[in-house]
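explain this.
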Amino acid sequence: MDVDVKVATMLARKADPPLEESRFGMSVEPGTSIEDLIAILGVPRSLVGSVTVNKKRTTTERVLEEGDAVAIIPSISGG
């Protein structure tokens, strides 16, 4: 099934291997969760702050559906 993915540039650069694009479409197996997607992309889980699906914040346990738009957002810190 196909989903649209947007990974914050900082996270795309930290992926292993680094992602060439920060926004792209991809095919995943039915039953794939956001946690699975993060692992497939090689994004360090410790750097992920939040995730949205179809512009709504959600948990990484959520199972993706055909046509979902996923955004993976880094943790933010500073002072």
